[in-house]
Design brief:
The complex is a heterodimer of chains A (302) and B (536).
Chain A lengths: L1 H28 L3 H5 L6 H11 L5 H13 L13 H36 L4 H15 L2 H16 L11 H27 L2 H8 L4 H38 L5 H10 L3 H29 L1 H4 L2
Helix pairs in contact in A: 1-12, 5-6, 5-8, 5-10, 5-12, 6-8, 7-8, 7-10, 8-10, 10-11, 10-12, 11-12
Chain B lengths: L9 E9 L8 E10 L4 E5 L6 H9 L7 E9 L2 E2 L6 H6 L4 E4 L13 H11 L4 H14 L5 H6 L7 H13 L5 E5 L7 H18 L2 E6 L2 H7 L2 E6 L2 E7 H6 L4 H10 L13 E14 L6 E14 L3 E5 L6 H8 L7 E6 L2 E2 L5 H10 E4 L13 H11 L4 H14 L16 H13 L5 E5 L7 H18 L2 E6 L2 H7 L2 E6 L2 E7 H6 L4 H9 L10
Parallel strand pairs in B: 3-8, 3-9, 6-7, 7-8, 13-18, 13-19, 16-17, 17-18
Antiparallel strand pairs in B: 1-2, 1-4, 4-5, 9-10, 11-12, 11-14, 14-15, 19-20
Helix pairs in contact in B: 3-4, 4-6, 6-7, 7-19, 10-16, 13-14, 13-15, 14-15, 15-16
Classes of the chains: A mainly alpha (302), B alpha/beta (536).
């Protein structure tokens, strides 16, 4: 069990290091940062000045170790836009995104799990087909289209503008969580159906355990174990989706910041956001792996 | 019948259970009458598809919705049972009638501790919390678990099949039901464990005054424990009566066949041994898993020596974990051995690679235990059988011709060639697997538990097929089995394995009649039917 934890931690650390390195390489490849930073009509000497200031005149390995060292100290550079630390810019935006993403995840989990369970328990009946049809729709619907549609219908039919923070989190969260909800519903259905047909469920019935209790105490906990992996993976699609959703709903979060920073070539901020997103993904997967330890005793022996 | 002071524990009258339309017969069971007196053990005997498990489900009130109870009455201790799957039935399950299943480990919730699952039974039947723990611990002691405290805290996967079956039996008897239904509870277990569990059930039956309805396909088990026997075939009772009379003088041809299957006789061969085909010297294999933190080593095969002569069958017997399947993998060169040599017709092939290894593989073929998993569901029979020759360079047309001939030899008609595996029964699939192995005209056939997943009467057919094909094609065979009956029926020599080592080796008849080692003697004595007078 300690081996399992250590190996997962080591894996997370290695992945993070690879990401940091890749970001370093890509930034070097995407053109001369000094030229990008300097005013468009700056003379060569000014660009050289920028280059020295940024340390770009040093050998590549020295730049790399310097870059790693600064990251370890929590120095991620400064936004050229506002002149404030990239970390600070990110932290300002984080609460709004966490609020949106958290609500979206909650909606996706609650709706997805219950719809999936309803479908599984009514297997083959019209309600099963309806729920599964809906979840395919939810999964396939592009979120920018769904978001725009909501805003359009809200404005025209109800005279309510759903964009911005003032209109509340519900509409953007629904847009963001829709796809995940669809996949959770389908996955819950198949996982629950598989569990219900396991021999131990039959054995529980033979012990006289009532239906409801068999379902809640035995089937659901077992069926939800593989779902944890899916939820962990869908954190990625939530982050990707938040870029679009925040843009559509004018939600002042990290996704919007990313779009703006790319547009204004704010290299330090983009670099930090890529790292932050990667770190979030890695952490989510680490949490999933460790959660398995708690949920499934069969893992603990390995 | 006059009303007696103690009503029968179980009475089934004229039970008929309909199969859904389109099944291969109309009724899963029809005209079933059963009566069980208190303290009695009734064995319901039949092969898969005979309807024995369906009858058990009906008694438990757990018939699946697709099966309808068309007619008949089931009474438990004189009271008619509520409708199938009704809520009222929950109160009877566990208290009046309880059931244990074949695979004990998978009949427990894998993510809950065993103790909690047992206490839950008491909880849902209204036993106050204060008494639960003690009653569970008492019962764990009653089923003779070596360490009840530890068992209480264990998860199902931490236990062996035998221990798990003890747990499940403990759960079934917690509320002292009048009737215990045991559906093939020892089929998945090793012979020695099987003997222990049968003893345990017999002892508990007396201790708790419970009647036992025991479902089995194995007349060896019947001979050991039954008071009464009911033989089922295709949903109908073909024979019933006191165990002694059915075992001694079976009336129905089907009963006789099942009885024959349980007392397979050794084959009188032992002719001249030909030249050695496979020679194994000081073979060792160790499995290593994991890295730095969680490294484990299992010594699977230890210093094994064996010689297989031309035209001979060598049975390798042992319980699960004895290393017999690992040995088979080494012989097939599917595992790289740690030390020792394997020689094929005098040529050392222990470390051959590439071309030489491929040639060797054409000469040594394998038939595995599970005919359902061993065939690709998307390969037609003909393609599955012809694949081997094509890989080894036979032109496609010729390969198909050879495959067709081989399918005929294993007893499958020409129409089988174009069908997919899932259209065949288990026995037929095993025939396909045998054809697939033999179409390459191997000199050695390795059969790893090749009949263990089959019904007993099918087992006999497949064993006959092996013997017959061996006579006409002249290959040698290594037959790996946990079943001593099977070993006796098919082999010239036998090799007994325990914990990776060879315990005893010799001519089959000699080893079985005069075993030299305690372990061999234990194995032989544990084989069901010994006590009841069915000789192996």
């Amino acid at each position: 069990m300690i081996g399992y934890v250590l190996s997962r931690l080591a894996r997370a650390a290695i992945t993070l290091l690879v990401t940091v390195t890749l970001v370093f390489i890509f930034i070097r490849f995407s053109g001369d940062p000094a030229a990008a930073l300097a005013p468009p009509d700056a003379p060569q000497e000014v660009i050289e000045q920028y280059r020295r200031a940024l340390g770009l005149d040093q050998p590549l390995w020295a730049q790399y170790t310097g870059y790693l060292g600064r990251i370890l100290q929590g120095d991620f550079g400064y936004s050229i836009h506002s002149g404030r630390p990239a970390l600070q810019v990110f932290l300002d935006r984080l609460p709004a995104t966490l609020y949106l993403g958290g609500t979206a995840l909650l909606i996706a989990l609650v709706l997805g799990l219950s719809l999936g369970a309803i479908a599984a328990l009514n297997r083959g009946k019209p309600i099963d087909r309806a729920v599964m049809g809906f979840s395919v729709f939810a999964f396939a619907m592009p979120n920018f289209l769904f978001g725009l549609g909501m805003i359009l219908i809200g404005s025209l039919a109800f005279q309510v503008y759903l964009g911005g923070q003032g209109a509340g989190v519900l509409a953007p969260a629904l847009t963001l969580g829709l796809a995940s909800m669809g996949s959770y519903a389908r996955f819950t259905r198949s996982s629950l159906l598989e569990t219900i047909n396991k021999p131990f469920m039959l054995a529980a019935e033979a012990r006289g355990i009532p239906y409801r209790r068999r379902l809640i105490r035995h089937a659901l906990p077992n069926a939800s174990i593989p779902l944890v992996t899916l939820v962990g993976l869908s954190v990625g699609s939530l982050i990707a989706g938040s870029v679009v959703t925040e843009q559509v709903f004018a939600w002042p979060g990290v996704g919007q910041l990313l779009v703006r920073s790319v547009a204004t070539r704010d290299i330090a901020t983009v670099q930090f956001l890529v790292l932050a997103i990667a770190a979030t993904m890695i952490t989510a997967n680490l949490i999933v792996d460790l959660l398995y330890l708690v949920l499934d005793p069969r893992i603990r022996v390995r | 019948m006059a009303a007696s002071p103690t009503p029968p524990v179980l009475e089934v009258r004229d039970l008929r259970i309909a199969l859904p339309p389109g099944a291969d017969r109309d009724h899963a069971a029809d005209g079933i009458d059963l009566t069980m007196a208190p303290g009695q053990t009734l064995c319901l005997v039949g092969e898969s598809g005979s309807g024995k498990s369906v009858i058990a489900q009906a008694i438990m009130g757990m018939l699946p919705p697709v099966l309808r109870m068309e007619r008949g009455r089931i009474t438990l201790q004189g009271t008619e049972t509520p409708p199938q799957r009704s809520d009222r039935f929950n109160r009877l399950r566990g208290t009046q009638v309880a059931m244990v299943f074949q695979d004990a480990v998978s009949s427990l919730n894998p993510i809950q501790r065993v103790g909690r699952q047992l206490e839950e039974i008491l909880q849902v039947h209204g036993v106050p919390q204060s008494q639960r723990r003690k009653r569970v611990m008492d019962m764990l002691a009653a089923v003779q678990l070596p360490d009840p405290d530890r068992a209480y805290r264990s998860y199902p996967h931490e236990m062996s099949g035998g221990q798990a079956q003890r747990i499940v039996i403990a759960g079934a008897l917690l509320l002292n039901p009048a009737l215990l239904i045991a559906d093939e509870p020892t089929t998945a277990l090793d012979v020695t464990t099987q003997a222990e569990i049968l003893d345990l059930i017999d002892g508990l039956k007396k201790k708790f005054d419970t009647s036992v309805l025991f479902i089995t396909h194995d007349f060896g088990v019947v001979a050991d424990i039954a008071d009464h026997v009911v033989v089922l075939k295709d949903g109908l009772i073909v024979e019933h009566g006191a165990a002694e009379s059915v075992l001694r003088a079976p009336q129905h041809a089907y009963t006789k066949r099942l009885l024959d299957a349980a007392s397979l006789e050794g084959r009188a061969q032992g002719g001249d041994a030909g030249a050695p085909v496979l020679t194994v010297r000081d073979l060792n294999l160790t499995y290593r898993r994991g890295f730095f933190f969680n490294r484990t080593e299992v010594a699977a095969v230890r210093d094994v020596n064996l010689t297989l002569h031309k035209g001979q069958t060598l049975a390798v017997v042992g319980e699960s974990g004895s290393g017999k399947s690992s040995l088979a993998k080494c012989l097939l060169r599917l595992e790289d051995v740690e030390s020792g040599t394997i020689a094929f017709k005098g040529q050392d092939i222990t470390h051959e690679r590439g071309r030489a290894l491929r040639d060797f593989r054409a000469r040594v073929q394998v038939v595995l235990q599970d005919p359902f998993g061993a065939l690709d569901p998307r390969f037609r029979t003909l393609d599955a059988v012809a694949e081997g020759p094509i890989i080894h360079g036979v032109p496609r047309k010729q390969a198909h011709e050879r495959a067709r001939q081989m399918l005929e030899r294993v007893g499958l008609g020409p129409q089988a060639a174009a069908r997919y595996p899932q259209e065949f029964s288990g026995g037929q699939r095993q025939r396909i697997c045998i054809a697939r192995a033999l179409v390459l005209e191997p000199e050695v056939l390795i059969a790893d538990e090749a009949v263990s997943a089959l019904d007993v009467s099918i087992q006999v057919q497949i064993l006959d097929l092996f013997t017959e094909l061996q006579k006409s094609l002249g290959f040698s065979m290594v037959f790996i089995t946990h079943d001593l009956h099977v070993a006796a029926a098919i082999s010239d020599r036998v090799l007994v394995m325990q914990n990776g080592r060879v315990v005893e080796e010799g001519p089959t008849a000699e080893v079985f009649e005069h075993p030299q080692k305690d372990y061999t003697r234990d194995l032989l004595n544990s084989a069901p039917g010994r006590k009841g007078g069915l000789a192996a």
